Amino acid sequence: MVKRSFFWILMICIGIPAFAQEVTYTLEENINYYEDLTETQTDYQKERCKLDVYYPQGMEKLPVIVWFHGGGPEAGEKHIPDGLKEKEVVIVTVNYRLHPKVQHPVYIEDAAAAVAWTFKNIDQYGGDKNKIFVTGHSAGGYLASMVGLDTSYLSKYDIDTNDIAGLIPFSGHTITHFTIRKENGIPGTQAIVDKYAPLYHVRKDTPPMLLITGNREMEMLGRYEENAYFYRMMKVVGHENIELMELDGYGHNMVYPAVPLLLNFVKEKSQGE
């Protein structure tokens, strides 16, 4: 009893709390990210162009992760991947319009509008607009890359893509997306690199990048190899802040084991290391 009392007195005297403060997280759902960006919207735009914000209460200047779901872009719903909750970061998870109700570049434009909304509003949720990281899986990874590499999409909102703190596509196309090729009658095995390909926009001054794919023998249609080529071309033009990670033992559905890599990257870049 004496030792225990001394422990509590010591904690009070030196100002260290006996227990870590519990953080409460809030999920604000179905925010229309076009509402303040455009005066007119279609019914499908109003229905689909929504995002959720998941954030810890009472904290400020936190890193922000914008997450785009996969699925084509022909399917899928906004969600927070396993392993991202309660990590003292703000999560923005986004729905965007889907093929065949729309065709390219509408879903890329939606992704850019969601990122623009984040830059303009995230301080209300304790996020730091200087620490916005854009990521997603498969089609979502492709959208993250396009928004971060093709400067034209965010420039419509007077936002410099290089103000993004980092791009972390999970198993995303670097060639033109197969859905866009399908919309043009081009088979999925025929590689195209045009203005709808991240590879078309290779440049030295992009934000830091972490490319993550599954194992090359288990991935979808050469996804590792196209990321490896993108990585090499970025190195050729002089981009020094890019990494490529191949997750052995995992195929295209490699989100869960990649989440810790994402969080480590966010922590490192947020601290300026």
From TrEMBL:
Record's keyword terms, sorted: Hydrolase, Signal
GO-annotated molecular function: hydrolase activity
UniProt keyword Cell inner membrane, yes or no: no
Top-level division of the source organism's lineage: Bacteria
Signal peptide: 1-20
Domain BD-FAE-like: 51-216
UniProt cross-references to Gene3D superfamilies, sorted A to Z: alpha/beta hydrolase (3.40.50.1820)
Stretches assigned to coiled coil: none
Protein name (database record): Alpha/beta hydrolase
